[in-house]
C-alpha cells in the first residue's frame, strides 16, 4: 500500500515537502495515546532475541535511524514508535543555520537512491539542547546526538564550534557522534585527516567529560565512504589510540558509481551526497575493513544502502554491532523496521549463532582477517 501511495503522491511532490508532510503525520500520531500505542504494537513488536548492547547501552535491537532525518530532535518518540531501536538526531551545529538553498534533495527512484546537499539545516545546539532537556519520553529509546561544524565558522575554529555543541548537548546524549564526513559543508571532510581529527576528538571527549562528570558519554566518529583504504585504516588506528567508543561507517558518497541507466543524467549530475542502494557495496567494504583493523576493541555502526533484513545481517557478519538506515525508509515506508526485525530474528534462528553478538564480525573472523 505504501508503495502505491509513494508512487501516486510522494513522487509527485517535492522530496523535501514530502519529508515534512510524512514527518508531521508521525509527530501528530505520537501525540494521540491510543493511536501511538496501537501503532507501536503494530510497527515495533519486540523480539527478545534481538536485544543488543552497544557501548554500555541496552537496546531492543540493533537497528536505528541514521542522522539527518530528525535534525532538530522533534520526532524521537515518533521514530521509536515506528520501530527504530535507537534514534540519532542531528547533525546539530554550534549555531543555527538555514542550510543550502532549495532545491537540495533529489530522488533517484529507479536506483532506490537519494542525492542531498541539505548543508546541515538545523536550529543549532542551543535550541536542540533546550528541546532535549524539556523532553518527556513516551517510548524508551536510545538517543544519539550527531554534531557538525557551523558553515560560517572558519576551519581554524572548527574545534571550538564542535566543543560548544558537545558542551550543550552531551548531557542529553546517550551517545555523541562527531560528524566529519558530510560532503555538503566545505572543508568538513578534511577533518578526517588524523592531524585534524586527533585534536578534534580529544577536545570533544574532554568537553563531554567536563560537562557530564557523572557518566562517560560514549563518543563515536562518522566517516565517509570516499576515504582511501589507507585513510580508513588511519582513522581506525586513531580511534583505538584515543579510546573512542565507536565508528559509524558510512555517510553519503560523492561518487556516482552503481547507478542504472534509467536515472535522468541531469539528476545524477546534481551536487551532493548519494545515499541508498548504490552505496551498499562501498559501505559494506569500509565496515569490513574497519572490523579487520579494530576487531572487537571498538563498536562499529554500519550504515549506507540498507534495504532489507538480509542487508542488516550482512553488516553484522561484517562487524557491525549496530546498523542504521535512512534512504531505505523513504522507499519502504512505515512497515520497514517491522520487516527488518522480523527478517533478522528469522535469520538469527536459522544461523549457527546463538545471539546477534556472536554473529558480529563472523565473516571477517572466518576469513582470518581480524587483529
Ligand atoms: C537527506 C539526507 C540528509 C542527511 N543528513 C545527515 C546529517 O545531517 N548528518 C549525518 O551524519 N548524516 C546525514 N545523512 C547521511 C545518513 O545518515 C546516512 O549516513 C546515509 O544516508 C547512508 O545511509 P542510507 O543509504 O541508509 O541513506 C543524510 C542523508 C540524507 C539522505
How do the strands and helices of this protein lay out in sequence?
Layout: H1 2-8, H2 15-31, H3 33-43, E1 52-54, E2 57-59, E3 63-65, H4 76-81, E4 86-93, E5 105-108, E6 113-116, H5 124-134, E7 142-148, H6 158-169, E8 175-179, H7 194-211, E9 219-223, H8 229-242, E10 246-249, H9 265-268, E11 273-276, H10 280-294, E12 299-303, H11 309-317, E13 320-325, H12 327-332, H13 336-349, H14 356-359, H15 362-366
Parallel strand pairs: 3-13, 4-7, 7-8, 8-9, 9-10, 10-12, 12-13
Antiparallel strand pairs: 1-2, 5-6, 6-11
Bound molecules: flavin mononucleotide (FMN).
Flavin mononucleotide (FMN) binds at residues 66-68, 71, 90-91, 105, 114, 116, 118, 120, 146, 179, 182, 222, 251-252, 275-276, 279, 303-306, 325-328.
What does the model show?
The structure is a single chain. The chain has 371 residues and is of the alpha/beta class. It has a single domain, classed as TIM Barrel (Alpha-Beta Barrel). It is built from 15 helices and 13 strands. The strands form three sheets. Strands 3-13-12-10-9-8-7-4 form an eight-stranded parallel β-sheet. Strands 5-6-11 form a three-stranded antiparallel β-sheet, with no helix packed on it. The mean pLDDT is 93. Flavin mononucleotide (FMN) binds next to strand 4, strand 6, strand 11 and helix 12.
